[in-house]
Design brief:
Layout (H helix, E strand, L loop, with lengths): L16 E5 L2 E4 L4 E4 L2 H4 L8 H11 L12 H13 L4 E5 L2 H18 L7 E5 L8 H7 L2 H4 L9 E4 L4 H9 L3 E6 L2 E2 L5 E2 L2 H14 L2 E5 L24 E4 L10 E5 L20 H15 L3 H22 L4 E7 L2 E6 L3 H10 L2 E2 L1 E3 L3 E4 L7 H26 L1
Helix pairs in contact: 2-9, 3-9, 7-8, 10-12, 11-12
The structure holds pyridoxal-5'-phosphate.
Length: 400
C-alpha cells in the first residue's frame, strides 16, 4: 500500500505539537514555537486559555449534544450577543466557516424566491477570494485550484475582479443577481484589506439593485482586525448577511450565519438545519470566547499590539528591500509579500521557532492570538528578522 491511511490532501509541516500555552506551542521534541498562525486565525485567545478550558470542561460534565429539535439556551445567549453588537437580527449556528457560507448563499437565493423572483440566483464572487471547500464555496470563490477536476462549474456563480468597479456595477444591476459575497479583508488571498469607499460603493449598488450583500468575516471577524467585525471600521457599509467562524469558538469548531430580519425572511422551518450546529459544548466555549473578545478594552489592547507588530515588520521591510515587497492587512491579520518563495520562507521561520501561515500573492501571514503581548510582538519581529537573514543567505546561494 502506497497511500497514507490519512487522505493526502494536506501538505503538513513536520513538527508534532503536544500542547500550547497562550501564544506558545510545544513540539514533542521539546522545541517551543511562537505561534503566529494560531490555527489560521482561530485560536484567538491563545492556547489553553483558562476560562475557555473551564467553560469546556464544565459543560463536558453536563450535556454535550441534544439536537436542534430542542431549545439550546447557549445558542439563544450567543445570538443575543451577536445581534446586540452587529447589524444582524437573527443567527443560525453551524460547525465551520464553509457551512456558515453555505447558509448565507442559500439564504440569499431563498430571499429572492420568497419575494417572487426565483430567477435571481447569481452570486457574484471575486478573484483572490476564499470561502471554504464545499461545492458552493469553491464556486463562489472561483479559484481554479479548488475547482479543477470536480465537474462542471455550478450555475449561478459570476466572477468579478475587485479592481474592476464598472464590471462589478453592471453585474450587480443584472436582473438575475441574488447577492455579492466578499471578504472585507481577503485572508487566504494575501491579507488584502478593501477600503471603506469600496465597501460603501458596493453596499449602495446592492441596495439600488435589490441584491443582497454577504460578508465573509470567517477570518476577518471576531476581533481579528481590532474591531469585532472588519466592516465595522466603516459607516454605511453593513451587509445583509454575514458568515462568522474561526475565532468565534476560540479553537472549538463553530460557525454562524448572521442576517438582517429582511434578508432572512425566506428562511422558515425546515429551510435549513444541522445535526451538530450550535450544540451545547460549542456554545459553552463560544459564549465565553465572545465575552472575552468583546470585553471593554480587550480589542484596544489588540490594536495597540497589532500596530507595534506591524511597525516592526514594516521596519524589516525597509531593512530588507531585496526580500520584502510590502507589508499589508489590518490589525492582527498581517501579510508580508516576499520576493522569494513563501512556502520555503515558512519552513525557514520554523527553523527560527516562529510559526507563520502562507497566503496568496506570495505572502506569509501573521495571525497571532488577539491577546499577544507587546514582548511577544517584539519577539515575533526578532524571529522574523532572523528568518529574513537565513532566507537571504539561502536564496543568494541558490541564485549563485
Ligand atoms: C474567509 C474564509 N471563509 C471561509 C473559510 C472556510 O472555513 P472552514 O475551513 O472553517 O470551512 C475560510 C477558511 O480559511 C476563510 O478564511
Amino acid at each position: 500500500m502506497t497511500i497514507s491511511p490519512l487522505l493526502p490532501v494536506y501538505n503538513r509541516a513536520e513538527p508534532v505539537f503536544t500542547h500550547g500555552e497562550g501564544s506558545w506551542i510545544f513540539a514533542d521534541d521539546g522545541r517551543r514555537f511562537l505561534d503566529c498562525v494560531a490555527g489560521i486565525a482561530t485560536d484567538a485567545l491563545g492556547h489553553a486559555h483558562s476560562r475557555l478550558v473551564a467553560a469546556l470542561t464544565e459543560q463536558a460534565g453536563k450535556l454535550w449534544h441534544i439536537s436542534n429539535i430542542f431549545r439550546i439556551p447557549g445558542q439563544e445567549a450567543l445570538a443575543e450577543k451577536i445581534t446586540a453588537t452587529t447589524f444582524a437580527d437573527t443567527v443560525f449556528f453551524a460547525n465551520s466557516g464553509a457551512e456558515a457560507i453555505e447558509c448565507a448563499l442559500k439564504m440569499a437565493r431563498k430571499y429572492h424566491a420568497a419575494k417572487g423572483h426565483p430567477e435571481r440566483i447569481d452570486i457574484i464572487g471575486f478573484s483572490g477570494s476564499f470561502h471554504g471547500r464545499t461545492y458552493a464555496a469553491v464556486n463562489a470563490s472561483g479559484n481554479a485550484t479548488y475547482l479543477d477536476g470536480f465537474g462542471p462549474r455550478l450555475p449561478g456563480y459570476v466572477q468579478c475582479g475587485v479592481d474592476d468597479m464598472p464590471a462589478l456595477r453592471a453585474a450587480i444591476a443584472a436582473p438575475t443577481t441574488a447577492a455579492v459575497i466578499v471578504e472585507p479583508v481577503q485572508g487566504e488571498g494575501g491579507a488584502r484589506a478593501l477600503s471603506g469607499e469600496w465597501l460603501q460603493t458596493v453596499r449602495r449598488a446592492c441596495t439600488e439593485a435589490g441584491a443582497l450583500l454577504i460578508y465573509d468575516e470567517v477570518q476577518s471577524g471576531m476581533g481579528r482586525t481590532g474591531k469585532l467585525f472588519a466592516h465595522q471600521w466603516f459607516d454605511d457599509a453593513a451587509p445583509d448577511i454575514m458568515a462568522i467562524a474561526k475565532a468565534l469558538g476560540g479553537g472549538f469548531p463553530v460557525g454562524a450565519c448572521a442576517a438582517s430580519e429582511e434578508a432572512a425572511s425566506g428562511m422558515g422551518v425546515s429551510a435549513h438545519g444541522s445535526t451538530f450546529g450550535g450544540n451545547p459544548l460549542a456554545m459553552a466555549v463560544a459564549n465565553e470566547a465572545f465575552d472575552l473578545i468583546a470585553a471593554p478594552g480587550f480589542l484596544d489592547k489588540t490594536l495597540a499590539v497589532a500596530a507595534r507588530l506591524r511597525a516592526g515588520l514594516e521596519d524589516l521591510g525597509r531593512r530588507y528591500p531585496q526580500l520584502v515587497v510590502d507589508v499589508r492587512g489590518k490589525g492582527m491579520l498581517i501579510g508580508v509579500k516576499l520576493t522569494g518563495n513563501n512556502r520555503e520562507f515558512m519552513a525557514m521561520a520554523r527553523e527560527k521557532l516562529l510559526l507563520v501561515a502562507g497566503g496568496g500573492d506570495n505572502c506569509v501571514r501573521l495571525l497571532p492570538p488577539l491577546n499577544l503581548s507587546e514582548a511577544e510582538a517584539d519577539e515575533a519581529v526578532a524571529r522574523f528578522a532572523a528568518t529574513l537573514d537565513l532566507a537571504g543567505e539561502r536564496w543568494d546561494r541558490q541564485a549563485a
